Amino acid sequence: MKQLVLLSLVLLLCGCSKTKTDQALLELDKKELAASINYDKILFYKFAKIAIRSSAVQDTTMPEYRKFVHESLNLHRTLSNIKPNSKESISVVDALLIYNDYRKVKNFVKNTDEDIFPLLIEGFNGNRDSVKTQKLLAAGDKLYYQNVEHAILSMAVLATRDLGREFALYECSKTQPELLKDSEEKTLLEFIRGFLFFSHKLLYLSEDGLSRNITWLEKNKNIPLPYTRALFGWGNLNNEQTNVGFHSMNVLFRGFDRLMMEREIDEERALQDFELFLKDTETLGLQNELIWCVESYLYLKREKPEKATVALNKLRKSPLLSNDEKEAIDKTIVYLKDRDSDSKLKGIYDKYFIGKIATKYMFAKLAQVDWEKVMKQQNVPHTAELFATVRKVRTLTDAVDQYTNEKAIEKGKTTIKETGSNLLDKAKGIFK
Known about the structure:
This is Short-chain dehydrogenase. The longest helix is centred in the N-terminal third of the chain and has 35 residues, at 2-36. By secondary structure, the protein is mainly α. Helix 8 (141-158) packs across helix 21. It has helices spanning 2-36, 40-54, 63-69, 73-81, 92-111, 120-125, 131-136, 141-158, 165-174, 184-199, 203-219, 226-232, 239-260, 264-284, 289-301, 305-315, 323-337, 342-345, 351-368, 371-377, 383-401, 406-419. The protein is built from 22 helices and no strands.
C-alpha cells in the first residue's frame, strides 16, 4: 500500500512538473520578448512615440507628462520640420540635441508604458478639445483604438526597410488581439505576430497565437479577406479559397514552431501540420518555395526519396536561395540518389535549413506589399498620418543613431565647433 501511495505521488508530481514546465517555457518566451525589444534603437523609437502621444495630454499635472515634456521639445521641433518623403538630412546639432535629451530620460522611457499616454492619432490631431478626441477618450474606447494603432504600425514599420522586423516586433508586443473585434484585421495581426515570434525563436508564444488563429479560421470560412489576398498575392482567389490558403500558412508556421521544439511528440505534430499544409495548398493548386521546401522535408522523413528529389529540384531553382543553400540541396539530392544514410543528411537539409528558407520567403512577401495603399483602399482611419510619422521617425532614428556612442558624440561636437560660432549657442546644451 505504501509503495502504491508513493508511486501515485511520483506520478502526480511528474504531471504537475510537466504542466509547470510548459507554463515556464511560455513565461520564458515572454521574458525573452521583453529582452529582444530593450535596446537603444527601439527605446529611441519609443521615445519619439511618447513625445507625440504626450503632446495630447490634457492634464498637464500628470507626473509622467511633467517629467518628460521639457526633454521632448527639440524632438517636436525637428519632427515638425521633417518632410516625410524628403531626403534632406537632419543637422548634426539637431541630432545631438535630441540624443542628449533622450539620454536624460532614457530610464524613464525604458520603464514607462507608452500606453498610459493619449492615442497617437490624438497627438496628430493638435486640437485636444475636439469632439472626435473626446469620443476616443470615452471609457473603454481608448484600449481598442490604441490596440488598432499598434496593429497598423506593426504593418507600417514592416514596410519600412530601415526599421523592419525589430520595430514590428515591438509594436506586436504591445498588441492585445483579444481586444480587437473578430475580423480579418485581428486574424492577420495574429499571423504577423506568430510569424515574427517564430523568426525571433519565441516558439511557444508563436504557437499559442497561431493555434487560436487556426481555430478561428475553421469557424469563419466565408469572411472577406482583402488584406490577406494583398499580402500573399492571391488576387484570383475568392474569400473561401483565401481562407483555405491563409489556414495553410497558419498551420505551416505552427508546424515550424513545433519542429523547433525539443520533444519527440512536437516533431510528430509538426509533420502532421505539414501534411495538412500540403493538403490545403493542393486544394488550391498553389506552387511556391514553401510548398517545395515542406514537401522535400516531409518526404525525406516519410522515406519517399523519389518525391523528395522532385521537390528539391524545384526548390533549388528559386532566386530566394543563396549559392550555399543550393549547394546543400545538391548534396542532399546526391545522397538520395545513392540511397545514403539519413545521418549524412543531418546538418545539410534539416529543420533549421527549411525554417530559414520559410522565413526568407515570408519576409520577401511582406516587403512586396504596399501596406499604405492597401489600408487607404480599405478606408483605415489616419493611414496617411501614421505612415508619414513612421517615415519621419525613421529619418530621425537614422540621424540620431550616428551619435549613440561617446566617440561619435565627440566627433559631432568637433564638427559643430569647426562649422562656426553661430551654431555654438544653439548647441550649448550638448557641451555641458
